[in-house]
Amino acid sequence: QVQLVESGGGLVQAGESLRLSCAASGSFSSITNMGWYRQAPGKQRELVAVITKGGITNYADSVKGRFTISRDFAKNTVYLQMNSLKVEDTAVYYCNADDENRRWSLVGKYWGQGTQVTVSS
To answer: 45-100, pLDDT tens digit by residue?
Structure first.
């Protein structure tokens, strides 16, 4: 099993930045894909960004150019640097990870508890 713990959420004004982190722990051989999803009230959970074991990144069009996903392989930690935040970025952000070799677009089997990001105008 893998446990994921997110941190870094908070309340900011539009145009400001936040950095989310997610640390994986537990019993596993190797984390493969790691990513971030978000869910706003009344909306479906959506993929924000994902980074593969090989370091390949993919982003939702809505955050491309503003958000950057990265990972520290030694620490089994993934980060999401969020710049130029917009009100529409407001959501609960969830860390997601897998320990099997899957395509990047497939949802990993492990979830964090979520961290709230609120962007005010």
So the answer is: 999 999 999 999 999 999 999 999 999 999 999 999 999 999 999 999 999 999 99
Cα separation, 86 vs 68, whole angstroms? 15
| Sign of the torsion angle spanned by Cα atoms 32, 17, 60, 94 | positive
For the chain, the farthest-separated pair of C-alpha atoms sits apart, in whole angstroms, at 44
Q: How far is CA 94 from the centre of its chain?
A: 6
**Is the sign of the CA dihedral 101, 104, 108, 112 positive or negative?**
positive
**Burial class (CB within 10 angstroms; exposed 0-12, middle 13-18, buried 19+) of 115:** buried
Q: Give the span between the Cα atoms of 53 and 99, in whole angstroms.
A: 10
pLDDT higher than 90, residue 8: yes
List of E strands, 8-114: 10-13, 18-26, 34-39, 46-51, 57-59, 67-72, 77-82, 91-97, 110-111
